[in-house]
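Researcher: Re-running this chain for the archive, since the previous output was lost when a drive failed. Same request as before.
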Amino acid sequence: MPKIYYDKDADLNVYQGRTIAIIGYGIQGRGQALSLRDSGLNVLVAQRPGGANYDLAQKDGFSPVAADEAAKRSDVIMILTQDHIQGELYRQSIKRYLKKGKSLAFSHGFNIHFSQIKPPGEVDVWMIAPKAPGALVRRQFVEGRGVPCLVAIHQDASGKALSDALAYAKAIGGGRAGIFETTFREETETDLFGEQVVLCGGTSALIKAGYETLVAAGYAPEMAYFECLHELKLIVDLIYEGGITGMRQRVSDTAEYGDYTRGPRIINERTRKEMKKILKEVQSGKFAREWIRENKKGRPHFNQYRKDSQQHPVEEVGKSLRAMMSWMKR
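Model: Regenerated C-alpha cells:
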C-alpha cells in the first residue's frame, strides 16, 4: 500500500514569502487557485486574454498575466493547461525562467514521463494530482472537506520538494482526505489506461454497442437510451458510494444474477487481451507519440472522431429525452 500523508504532515509556512503561479485558469486551474488563495498563499494566475477563462479569473479577483510573466515572477510554477500544449508552452514561456530554487509542478505526469518537458537539473519537479475535477476540488474545500490527491517527486534538487508538494496539497484540501505517494510513471500510465479502457473509451463504446443492439432488434430508441445510457448514472453512483459489492446489494436479485452470469461474457478473455495490448501501448509511449503527432498535424482524425460521435443516433435521442428532465435544466 502506498504511503499516505495528511494535514499534520504538511506545513503551509514553507510558502511564506513565495509566489505560486497557476498556468491555465480552466476547471482544475480555477479550483486550485481559489483554494490556494483561501489558504493564505500568494497566487499569480497566467491566462491568455480574450477568452472566458481570462474574464472569469478577473471576476474572481485575480489579475491574469502572460505565462512568461508568471514564470518570471513566481517560485513555484504549476502547469495546468491541457497535455498537448504543455510542451510548447514550456519551451516558449517557462524554460528560460527556471533557475535554482524554483519548482516546476504538475497535476498530471504526461509531459514529464514522456519527455515532452525536460526541466533543468537544478529545479524541483513534483506533482499533486487531485483525484477529482477542479470544480469538485473547490466545492469540497469550501465545505471544509477535501478530495484525495496523489503526490510524486521527479526531481528533488533542493531537498525540500516533498514538503513543498505536501503543503500545496494541504492548501487545496488534499490533506483532509489523504495524499497518496506515487510516481510520475505510475500516475501517468494508470491514468491513460483507465481513461481509454474503462472511464471513457470502454464506457462510451459499451453504451453505443448496447444501444445499437437493442435498436437493431426492433426496440424503441427511447427504451434503448434509458436502459443503456440514462440508468448508468444510478449504477455508477451506487458503485461510487459502496463499491461493486455495495451496488449489487442495492439492485434487484435479478440484476445481480445477470451481473454474475452475463458480465463475464461481455468482458471476456478477448477483451482482456485487448486491455493488455492497450496497456502496452501506454507503457511503451506508443499512444503518447500518436497523440503528439495527431496534434502536430492539426488533429485530422480527432476532429473526425468527434464529429462522427456527435452524430450518433444515441446523441440525438438523448437530446430530446434530456429536454424532458426538469432536474437537468439549469
